[in-house]
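ok so for the tutorial part 2 we go from a plain amino acid sequence to predicted structure tokens. step 1 is just haveing the sequence, like this:
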Amino acid sequence: MITGAIKNKIDKIWTDIWAGGITNPITVIEQLTYLMFIRSLDEKELEREEFENLTGEHMDKIFPQSPAGQAMRWSKFKNRDPRAMFDIISQRVFPAIKNMRSGKLPDFQEDGTMVEVDAQSGGEGQEDTAFARYMDSAMFLIPTPQVLQKIITGLDELYEHDIAERDMQGDLYEYMLSKLSTAGANGQFRTPKHIRDMMVELLQPTPDDAICDPACGTAGFLVSAAQYIRDHCEDTMTEEQWAHFAGDCFTGFDTDPTMLRISAMNLMLHSISHPDISYQDSVSKQNQISERYTICLANPPFKGTVDAESINDDLKAVTNTKKTELLFLALFLRMLKKGGRCACIVPDGVLFGSSKAHKAIRKELVENHQLQAVISMPSGVFKPYAGVSTAVLVFTKTGAGGTDQVWFYDMKADGLSLDDKRSPVEENDIPDLIARFHDLEGEQERERTEQSFFVPREEIAQNDYDLSINKYKKVEYVPVEYPSTAEIMADLHQLEMEITAGLAELEGML
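step 2 — the prediction. this is what the tokens look like for a chain of 510 residues:
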């Protein structure tokens, strides 16, 4: 668990970077990510050297065995003069990790010329991590040797004394990501961890699932799903399930190379070294994936529109629109296997929008698949990013209907204040929501005046497939009895007499 003392140390590193002139939070996280990756390579090398010394078995090395290659290791440069350290990282280490091949870093000649790694020379198990695959366009932006020294000293102290465990490394990265407080150009933003965890709890993934987030951002949903599987299944997982867990169990797509690097690092710090993290516009014609995954978890971009020419025809056949929030719903249905489940966040407009495209996707969910739940969330959930009202849709792909009734839940509190500060509060509907969702038999008799209730499919169809909870929720009005006019007039006369008596008493004192 990240304590207040550890947070203070992270904040100090963050402040040092800002003082150096890097003020964009994504850029700060990106630069820290590079340094964390450089340190993780040295950690792996130390583990291999230790194994080699214990067993006598030869292990392929990440770093070249030359003096120049060994000088690139974190443990070798971290105590050097700031200027020498800056030169090593900017001119040797950073170019080297951008050209990492087959799990090995290239060497350098005496004149500084890089010696390319033979892509075929790597040993078994030396394939690149997902993070290393997306380093080509990376840029080293730390401005001065002094700033770099402060960052490396701060990170090294954290790793040595505070976050030695892998779980703690993941928590540290989560805390860094929580500092992202601006939405992207298409309305994408980081989903709060407790909301992601709630959605994962609703679907309860297993080690055998194939889980996808086609708008993965920082890979938060994949991390939450991985943590759920570890918490509930770690003691019973087979070797095959662990191999699946470390690799193709988790898939994410994004169109931002920076986000791909950050998400790959986030997953790597949570024991997922080879996820399928790909650069891809999920709703475009380049994405032809169909019926591959058993679970989709996502918070797709809300405000975005895409070029009509690039949209996949399969999606337009379901909902003919350029709005990303509608196209992604059609995409989930296509990418899921039959029986596959999805929990996704949508803006409220998806629930009641009157356009043909809005009605078409809602009808598709209700009539041709099994829409299980519509969970209305309060508008402050995504502050300080945005105050947009949202809902969570939970559905199963069937291709043959199955929606008899839809469960609605009116979430009024999520354990945090609904203003920009998002401070902890006692009111929290999430535990109640999860408990009710997993006991839907007990929900059958609930009235529409309660916090959750069922609505029959026929009624939803009669209302143009409107899925907004206020369309079906009944408000119970409690009659208020007021005094009669005669009683009110008598009270006014009494007050008037008391005021007159008070004024007379005051005059007598003068």
